[in-house]
Amino acid sequence: MTLPLVVAITGATGVIYGVELLRVLQDLGQPTHLILSEAAGANLAIETEYTLDQVRSLATVVYSNKDVGAAVASGSFRTRGMIVAPCTVKTLSAIANSFTFNLVTRAADVQLKEGRKLVLMVRETPLHKGHLDLMARAADCGAVILPPMPAFYHRPETILDLVHQSIGKALDQVGIEHELFRRWTGRAG
């Protein structure tokens, strides 16, 4: 049995990371449990051509962010881990401080308490010391801080190439095989 991966999309700019993550996972046959924050829906309309229904259709199971009684709110419900893509600073702050006020933050807290992978694709720039302190605090609790920062060694040609490299790095953290970007194999010559 393949354990599901929890995917949360919050209201930071860069909702395409979450949408494309879901699309890739669907193509790979990986079951996903999706939580969309309320602000994610607004950003989806601003930043993409996707509708909420189209994004929901990419997931195996979809939960309301208000449903703190959902399966993913309990540690007894086994998952492969969780990726928050993108992750707002508000969500980062709640996770770093164990403030589980909605399903995104409760599901993230469950991953940490159960020793599962929690990958936070934090989207904010520039960062002040408070942001950095929150990242350090979340990392101290076991979260992987993975801001989507583009790499160029794989010679990206499109924005989607850059998105794939970032979500590929997130998938590496939860042990899901993919071929989203050309990996570094050393410098020739």
From TrEMBL:
Gene3D superfamilies referenced in this protein's UniProt entry, alphabetically: Flavin prenyltransferase-like
Binding site for dimethylallyl phosphate: Y153, K169
Presence of the UniProt keyword Glycoprotein in the record: no
Family: Belongs to the UbiX/PAD1 family.
Pfam families named among the record's database cross-references: Flavoprotein (PF02441)
Signal peptide location: none
Underlying gene: ubiX
Reported function: Flavin prenyltransferase that catalyzes the synthesis of the prenylated FMN cofactor (prenyl-FMN) for 4-hydroxy-3-polyprenylbenzoic acid decarboxylase UbiD. The prenyltransferase is metal-independent and links a dimethylallyl moiety from dimethylallyl monophosphate (DMAP) to the flavin N5 and C6 atoms of FMN.
Catalytic activity: dimethylallyl phosphate + FMNH2 = prenylated FMNH2 + phosphate
Keywords: Flavoprotein, FMN, Prenyltransferase, Transferase
InterPro entries: Flavin_trans-like, Flavoprotein, UbiX-like
List of residues binding FMN: G11, A12, T13, S37, T88, V89, K90, T91, R123
Species in which this protein is naturally found: Ramlibacter monticola
NCBIfam families: PRK06029.1, ubiX_pad
The protein's name in its UniProt record: Flavin prenyltransferase UbiX
EC number: 2.5.1.129
Transmembrane regions listed in the UniProt entry: none
GO molecular function terms noted in the UniProt entry: flavin prenyltransferase activity
Domain (Flavoprotein): residue spans on this chain: 5-167
